[in-house]
Amino acid sequence: MAALAVVLLGAVEQRLDRICAAGLQPWVRRADLDAIGSPASGPVENFGALVELLERLEPPRFFLLDGAAETVDAVIDAASREIEPGDVVIDLAPSWWCDTLRRHRRLRHRSLFHLDAAELAGPAGGLLLVGGDARGLSLARPVLEALAAPGRVVHAGGAGAAHWTAEVAAALATARAQAESEARALLEAFPNGLAAGAVAAALGLGTAQPDPRALWLPDDALRLQAPSPLLAQAAIQDQAQALDEERERLPPPRRGPFALPEEIL
């Protein structure tokens, strides 16, 4: 049986080897492939313009989108003018969930499925969360299951649900990092010869990493009337520490204003 085809859009290089390793058949623009070279893990099909895929691939076609949040709209707008109704866009970019809602609505107007997806690290590692229409998820499930660990694809909810969950997870990771830092300081403060390094390792301290997307949370929580003082404080404290240390820790840019699903036309 031929491998399931996936068309890569946006930041091709960071996904290409993984797509091959998952047993999927990647399709990449010829210009992108010339720039990055072929992966060692498997053959890659190439194309010049997306319109070529209409003849070469059977519908529905699956488009895997990744890259910097500020590039996503341009990639989606260009692609949506050429791909056909019923095709599926799987959006793995680290976007703000309100921007994701707008993209979902824009593609739905063109009868295209848009799924937002997020891979979670840490205690829930290996999970691939997916937000969007159940029909789109059903079509894309073979691709999603190839990318995730067995049984680890979770339909998080409607459009934007996976990207919203990623924001909450970012805030939780930042809060854990703050708590672990405080716990390490407490171990080191023990006045009677505690082996702080060994004990910290035994407790798993130092595994959590702050995520700048946590800075989206305080404003979103207020707008959604969802109390989150601990998570908000951790995000603000991490930013203050970065400023003190003259480090830049900024979240990806938000492309539009806050909006609820019913407010997006």
Topology, element by element:
Elements: E1 5-10, H1 13-21, E2 25-29, H2 30-36, E3 45-47, H3 53-56, E4 62-66, H4 72-80, E5 88-91, H5 97-109, E6 113-120, E7 127-131, H6 134-147, E8 153-157, H7 161-188, H8 196-202, H9 217-223, H10 229-244
Parallel strand pairs: 1-2, 1-4, 2-3, 4-5, 5-6, 7-8
Antiparallel strand pairs: 6-7
Helix pairs in contact: 7-8, 7-10
Could you state the order of secondary-structure elements as H and E?
EHEHEHEHEHEEHEHHHH
Q: Count the strands?
A: 8
Report how far the terminal alpha carbons are from each other: 42 Å
DSSP summary: helix tally: 10
Overall geometric form:
globular
Query: Whole-number average pLDDT?
Result: 90
CATH fourth-tier homologous superfamily of the largest domain:
NAD(P)-binding Rossmann-like Domain
Tell me the strand order in the biggest sheet. 3-2-1-4-5-6-7-8
Q: By helix and strand content, what is the structural category?
A: alpha/beta
Main beta sheet, described?
8 strands, mixed
Please give the share of residues in helix: 40-55%
CATH topology of the largest domain: Rossmann fold
Strand content: 15-25%
Radius of gyration: 21 Å
How many structural domains does the protein architecture include? 2
What would CATH call the architecture of the largest domain? 3-Layer(aba) Sandwich
CATH C-level class of the largest domain = Alpha Beta
The low-confidence runs, each spanning 5 or more residues with pLDDT under 50, are: none
